Amino acid sequence: MTDRLIRLATAADVERVVDLRESMFRDMGVDCSDDAWKGPCRDWYAARIDDPAHRIVVVEEADRVVACVIGSLRDSAPVPGLDGHGDVLVSTVSTDSDARGRGHARTALEQVLDWARGAGVARAELMTSPDGRHLYEALGFRVTEFPAMRTPLA
User: Fold this and answer.
1) 6 near 114, Cβ under 8 Å?
2) pLDDT class for 36, splitting at 50, 70, 90?
């Protein structure tokens, strides 16, 4: 395996993280031809780089960011069966296609989950594609009885 560096993202990484997010959406079959979302996405990441409620972990190989994982703490009321409260929303688990299969996403995700545990968070939540499901299941994620539902508000 090539040497890699796992680290927190900096402002200099924002554009690359947006690129990885776009790649993730494309892999999921999402039409990304209208790139109007990219500017607000850059702004969102830039505003959260140093926010203690967010953790953006990147993986570098040969001085290039090839993977990322984002965790965002959310406040929520306690639920039966879990100590603590709140959860971490995991998103943008993305690895360049030519860097896959080397454990980058897993290592970055483990760092995000360790950070969330250290913050006293009770659970983690993410949305998955069929390709990512095996990774998440290996880390203890399970499909829940209650699927996510969404509606646009604008």
Assistant:
1) no
2) very high
Give the residues across from 88 on adjacent strands.
73, 124
Ranges of H-type helices in the chain: 14-27, 38-48, 104-118, 133-138
Is the pTM higher than 0.90? yes
Q: Measuring CA to CA, how many Å separate 100 from each of 15, 23, 141, 143?
A: 20, 13, 20, 24
Q: Torsions phi, psi of 134, nearest 5?
A: -60, -40
99 and 143 in contact (C-beta within 8 Å)? no
Alpha helices (runs of H) in 49-151, residue ranges in sequence order: 104-118, 133-138
Sign of the C-alpha dihedral computed for residues 43, 66, 91 and 72 taken in this order: negative
Length of the chain: 154
Indicate the angle between helix axes 14-27 and 38-48, nearest 10 degrees: 130
Average pLDDT of the residues in 58-86: 91
In the DSSP assignment, the letter for residue 37 is G
For residues 72 and 36, what is the distance between their CA atoms, to the nearest angstrom?
A: 23
| CA neighbours closer than 13 Å in the CB half-sphere of residue 11 | 4
